[in-house]
Design brief:
By secondary structure, the protein is α+β, with helices and mostly antiparallel strands. Helix content is 50%, strand content 22%. β3 and β4 form a beta hairpin. α2 runs antiparallel to α5 and α3 packs antiparallel against α6. The model has no long low-confidence stretch (mean pLDDT 84). Pfam families: TerB.
């Protein structure tokens, strides 16, 4: 059989005569985390118009397609849900704020007057990215948090404090693996244990932290027990 005379040859000739082409139109831009590049990149949001082509020339409309997200660097296209994932910069800020809020909540449960608890909280917050954090700053923020939520030190986690925790942790939880979510809870547990065993108020706050991080109650109990068995 001569080259190009078989079934594949006929299909190739047909596709070179008739086909489809998509004309993309920019509809917005921004920054996103590109899984193709593995980092933060600029993007364009594109809408597309599909057309039948004859000999490579568009002749008839075939409907709309997209929208899609096109990476400005690698030019790969992704579905719009890719924008639900935070950029590296945004993710770092969310993680930093989460650790800071958990530290304040645990201190508000009774550790604000303890030097060792404040020291432990400062270490956690600095490691998360607040390099200039001091004990005095955290103590002052705990007072402001109590005034804002109407909470008294040592009380169980009230509605106001629970809202603060959920606002900081809810957006972050879907983007963390199990080990990452448990790590935040563990940091809070270590702050609580810095001045002695858990108080009921500290356990209540840590249970709220676990719930906001979508950690089941059994795993919260496991993490808190493991922290209590591990020397700080």
């Amino acid at each position: 059989m001569l080259p190009g005379r078989g079934r594949n040859g006929h299909a190739a000739r047909f596709s070179s005569i008739l086909g489809t082409r998509t004309a993309w139109t920019p509809a917005g831009d921004g920054e996103f985390f590109c899984p193709g590049c593995g980092g933060d990149r600029n993007y364009q949001r594109l809408t597309g118009q599909r057309r039948f082509t004859l000999l490579g020339l568009p002749v008839l409309p075939r409907g709309e397609t997209g929208p899609v997200v096109e990476c400005a660097a690698c030019r790969r296209h992704f579905g719009m849900d890719i924008l639900d994932h935070p950029t590296t910069t945004r993710f770092s800020a969310m993680l930093r704020d989460a650790v800071h809020t958990v530290a304040l909540a645990v201190l508000a449960a009774g550790g604000a007057g303890s030097r060792t608890a404040l020291e432990s909280a400062v270490l956690a917050v600095r490691a998360a990215g607040f390099d200039d954090c001091t004990e005095e700053q955290l103590a002052a923020l705990v007072e402001a948090l109590e005034a804002d939520t109407g909470r008294i030190t040592g009380e169980p986690c009230g509605a106001g404090l629970a809202i603060e925790l959920h606002e900081a942790l809810d957006p972050l939880a879907p983007h963390l693996a199990t080990v990452g979510r448990e790590s935040i809870l563990l940091q809070g547990a270590r702050i609580a244990l810095a001045d002695g065993p858990y108080t009921p108020a500290e356990r209540d706050v840590l249970a709220t932290v676990g719930a906001a991080l979508t950690i089941c109650s059994d795993d919260v109990t496991r993490v808190l027990a493991a922290a209590a068995r591990t020397p700080s």
